[in-house]
UniProtKB/TrEMBL annotation:
GO terms for biological process: coenzyme A biosynthetic process. One of its GO terms (molecular function) is ATP binding. Keywords: ATP-binding, Coenzyme A biosynthesis, Kinase, Nucleotide-binding, Transferase. GO terms for cellular component: cytosol; nucleus. It comes from the Eukaryota. InterPro entries: ATPase_NBD, Type_II_PanK. The lineage of its organism: Eukaryota, Sar, Alveolata, Apicomplexa, Conoidasida. PANTHER family: 4'-PHOSPHOPANTETHEINE PHOSPHATASE, PANTOTHENATE KINASE. It comes from Cryptosporidium hominis. This is Pantothenate kinase 2.
Length: 363
């Protein structure tokens, strides 16, 4: 029998631990142009309720015993990687929430363009009140929560990449690590570049429509039907061709997720004139690399203007692309006097959803 996660094509990407539930809705949404992100909380005191989630988590990403012993609240981060119209994804999300016993017809914190576009449908069909939070503010709040206040169940201690005079180092984060001021780069369907001085002082300084949505759209010409397939094709090419960060890279382990679903692509579903699987992998790999090469030039140009050394990447289309991001930033690091620090988080796609959810306080 399928679990609710399989039934509604949802995947648990990560978890965080909270001291209390921030609001009475118990869940929040980030509705983007191509993907919907859901976060919700459960009490760790309810073992029976919590066990259902444990059975569907990829356990190598979490310290399960640490979560069990915490006895507080856990926030789950889910995404629907299967390609559907956003309206259908919304239906799946609320179908899951209702069957899981989490749905309540009350105020729900939301962010993303879809929280405006689908507000009428959400309120009339699902009988909720949409409490919308500004997208940029939500991303910044989520950034501060994930890098500062929110404890996650990840087994590895966070690191960041430091590029110094042509060499790349993986540096362990500690209490002395300063992330801000920085540029926060949100790579969703489009791209936003946000200058962040502190949690209350920030502005969107640039962006581009050439983001993950464009890459996904072009890849659909190959028969790529969902987000998981896109990541699988890219990762497969990386593995087969021995892609790495270069001989000068000094790495001692990495904590970032490897979110790759089982591919649903078959040779019969693809246009015959495009050739074999290797060509499809190469095409996806090249279009992603082209996007990040162009984007990195813009990022380094803007960062040099503000004299920033720190760059934070977030958004679901950052997943599995850390290597090409580092390579591309490194190529243009001369604009930053050959010194730049690049930060990722394994919950990179949930900055907005977490920021909005934790900003909505209890009524």
């Amino acid at each position: 029998m399928k679990s609710l996660f399989e039934k509604y094509s949802l995947d648990i990407i990560g978890v965080g631990v909270l001291n209390q539930v921030p609001n009475d809705s118990h869940y929040g949404l980030d509705i983007g142009g191509t993907l919907i992100k859901l976060v919700y909380t459960l009490s760790l005191e309810n073992d029976e309720l919590f066990e259902y989630e444990l059975e569907n988590m990829r356990k190598n990403f979490y310290d399960i015993e640490a979560l069990r012993s915490n006895r507080k609240y856990v926030i789950f981060c889910l995404i629907a990687p299967v390609n559907k119209e956003i309206e259908l994804q919304i239906g799946d999300i609320f179908g899951f929430l209702k069957e899981r016993g989490l749905y309540k017809p009350n105020s729900v914190p939301m962010t993303g363009g879809g929280s405006v576009k689908f507000k009428t449908i959400l309120e009339s069909k699902y009988k909720i009140k949409v409490v919308r939070f500004d997208e940029m503010k939500s991303i910044v709040n989520g950034c501060f929560e994930l890098f500062g206040n929110l404890s996650t169940g990840n087994l590895q201690q966070p690191h960041f990449y430091s590029i110094l005079k042509g060499e790349t180092f993986l540096v362990r984060m500690d209490s002395h690590t300063r992330i801000f001021p920085s540029l926060v780069i949100s790579v969703g369907s489009g791209v936003s570049i946000i200058r962040v001085e502190n949690q209350n002082q920030f502005e969107r300084v640039s962006g581009t429509r050439f983001g993950g949505g464009t890459v996904f759209g072009i890849s659909k010409l190959l028969g790529v039907e969902n987000y998981g397939d896109l990541l699988k094709l890219y990762s497969s090419y990386e593995r087969k061709n021995g892609q790495n960060l270069g001989e000068s890279t000094h790495l001692s382990g990495c904590f970032f997720k490897e979110f790759v679903k089982e591919s649903s692509i078959t040779s019969s579903s693809l246009p015959q004139y495009l050739g074999e699987a290797e060509q499809k992998e190469k095409f996806v790999h090249n279009i992603v690399n082209m996007m990040y090469s162009d984007l990195s030039y813009l990022i380094c140009l803007i960062s040099s203007n503000y004299k920033y050394e720190n760059i934070v990447f977030c958004g679901n289309y950052v997943s599995n692309h850390h290597k090409i991001i580092i390579k591309s930033i490194k190529k243009y690091s001369y604009m930053l006097n050959d010194k730049v620090n690049v930060f990722f988080h394994y919950l990179d796609g949930f900055f907005g959803a977490i920021g909005a959810y934790l900003s909505h306080k209890c009524n």
